[in-house]
Amino acid sequence: MAFNVAVVGATGMVGQEVLAILAERMFPTAEVFALASRSSMGREVSYGDRTLKCRDLAQFDFGQADIAIFAAGGDVSGEYAQKAADKGCLVIDNSSRFRLDEDVPLVVPEVNPDAVEGFRKRGIIANPNCSTAQMVVALKPLHDLAGIKRVVVSTYQSVSGAGREASDELFTQTKGIYVNDDPTPSQFTKQIAFNVIPHIDVFMEDGSTREEYKMVAETQKMLDPNIKLTATAVRVPVFVGHSEAINIEFERPITVSEARKTLREAPGILVVDKREDGGYVTPVECVGDFATFISRIRKDPTVENGLNLWCVSDNLRKGAALNAVQIAELVVNRGLVEARD
Predict the structure, then answer these.
(1) Domains of the chain (ranges, CATH numbers)
(2) Catalytic residue selected from 130, 143, 286, 311
(3) Catalytic site residue 89?
């Protein structure tokens, strides 16, 4: 059985990754519609060894599609996602628009696959925040093993998480510094080249940012509402690949060897944990890979049952496009969506 798939935001960084991953994983497509704004109509994008011409999202009839993957931001999802779902098209949304909606399942297939069954209420499944997605892949098997009480996470997030213009700004500032150009911020609040910025998304009343709040709320929705989590989200001058230093406190005793064995056997994870120079994974090495990489697994002696670990993943893939395609594969494999005649 083959499906008609629409990719909304096909000219963006995540949209292009969605098209690439659909082809790489040989998702059963009958027809693929590349959708974008009217200004991009006719622009060509790659889908495997084929070239697709973008169609105007505003004029597209979602009655033609079985599945639509939205990768164009919250405003676009707010305007078109429910319209698409009302036409009988399953929507998988990458934006934050529906993540905390009680009637919309928030899904990472390695973590809570059964939640996809709830898509029938709205016809929409939400993709989590990029920083949350890779973290819960690591937390899930450990939570099943020893029960997680509390998590303290610091993120080191690449500029691609803020879009193409943010990536261009890092490139331009880096190049300009070498010729004494003034690195004037535009996409970021401060200079990003050769710097780190402890500020992602808007500030909230309690002093945290919305990015940090998302990690808390989304983890509790997908994994366990009783997990206490605090986050500090930092933007770093890396083009692709998010890194996270995660400190975990457990309800029951857990050894480093038990944690390492459990993570090695868990889906979607590759453990690279050698206690030697270079025996860990960095963002540069994870780019283009499907896996979430875990390194630096070690005991935290300051709490009774504590561990530290280092988590790295390609944010454009597992943090967005790959997870969306995996959700599509999950609903197809479970027979939850049918191809139109």
Answers:
(1) 3-128+320-333 (3.40.50.720), 131-314 (3.30.360.10)
(2) 130
(3) no
